[in-house]
User: Which sequence fits this backbone?
């Protein structure tokens, strides 16, 4: 009888290891939808630490819309509208976030002087498929970096397009750090942000935010092509109109400087 | 040393059992997007038998748009435009399908005479949340049931709105069977079909299709509230415009009689 234990042990070890492997490779997992956030659904639903289940890399915001999230190497950083970055350890939750396990397979370098729009074009030219889903990481030094963050809100919540008018804007110069985010295809409209959505965190982990513009001094881009989108929907807000087209609001919120 | 084996064995058994549990409970998994289908991307990408990984219940179509799919109790049925239903066993693939493990928690009865539109209203009244995701199963007898199916296509593929004009329509009377499908919220626009999308299969498994209309003789509705949407994206079609609003095309395709 005891002779069977090593065999059973080995078999179970195999099952445990293969069965417990993350099912989230090549998957961007998102909490809630951008249209709910645009409509003012700012109450956090998923603890930030639970995001690690789905990956080590991503972006989002926090309970009460309290700043911009950057997740890098499994650590979650909060860039509040005060600009004072902190690493998140406690029970803080998120109402909207997108994360993945980051396993890049494509690399390119951006030329000195490349600005935000030109960087997007260079990456798109390399990818060659506007219908793909990609996680994107830039590491480098930027001669200028312009970001924003949003102030924490109290109820009753106003729509994001109104709140974003009160955003803080941060201008950095000669800053080294990480750009973290995604390219998502046009058909995610209503669910997430079509196109490029990138957040920044400096190397000291003291400054960052949602990127409005930058100029590259030198930067390498790493890209992980994904092919699955996992949408985790919290208790759905029954009284929120998620039927209207919020593209214009989104464009305003994403790019207003 | 050998005394540790039972403990390790027990621990590993626990890990194996919990770790291997399906990650797809409360999840509708879909292959590709409705907008790709509307654009004429009809080549199958995922074998129908692989859909069982994600659930036992669902709807969809087949390689070359060869008919309407009904998945019930883990079996996949094909309703081609000839109207002759067959159960799918071989390597047939799907370009678009939505499936879930069906575990209903809500039940209601539909009054005699209730038509398709009134049934949708009755279900919506019971659910009370247009932003939720629900798998829906009706079992019953219908004094009339009107369905359609679409003919298999050859390349170059035309858009679905054109192809649907050549649909076959089936009118059944005093028919007993199963209605299988989903209610999806408005924000899935571009990805899946917002609102009710239901297919029919009679009790003999000889007739069925995409439902255009019905009248209930007696029917029970079972509903499984879901809270996750898992979007499995095949090699994305680079040359297909997935940015345009295809809502009008979709409405025409879903409801044209």
Assistant:
């Amino acid at each position: 009888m005891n002779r069977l234990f090593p065999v059973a042990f080995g078999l179970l070890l195999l099952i445990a290891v293969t069965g417990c492997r993350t099912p989230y490779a090549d998957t961007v997992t998102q909490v809630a939808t951008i249209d709910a956030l645009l409509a003012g659904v700012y109450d956090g639903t998923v603890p930030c630490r639970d995001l690690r289940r789905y990956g080590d890399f991503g972006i989002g915001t926090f309970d009460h819309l309290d700043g911009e999230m950057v997740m890098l190497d499994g650590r979650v950083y909060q860039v509040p509208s005060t600009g004072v970055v902190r690493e998140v350890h406690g029970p803080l939750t998120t109402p909207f976030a997108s994360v993945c396990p980051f396993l890049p397979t494509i690399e390119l370098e951006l030329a000195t002087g490349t600005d935000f729009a030109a960087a997007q074009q260079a990456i798109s030219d390399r990818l060659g498929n506007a219908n793909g889903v990609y996680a994107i990481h830039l590491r480098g030094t930027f001669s200028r970096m312009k970001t924003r963050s949003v102030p924490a809100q109290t109820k009753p919540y106003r729509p994001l397009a109104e709140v974003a008018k009160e955003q803080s804007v941060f201008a950095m110069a000669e800053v080294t750090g990480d750009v973290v985010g995604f390219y998502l295809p046009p058909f995610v409209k209503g669910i997430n942000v079509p196109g490029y959505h990138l957040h920044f965190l400096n190397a000291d982990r003291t400054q960052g935010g949602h990127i409005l513009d930058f100029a590259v001094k030198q930067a390498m881009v790493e890209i992980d092509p994904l092919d699955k989108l996992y949408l985790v929907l919290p208790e759905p807000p029954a009284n929120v109109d998620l039927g209207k087209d919020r593209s214009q609001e989104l464009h305003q919120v994403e790019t207003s400087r």
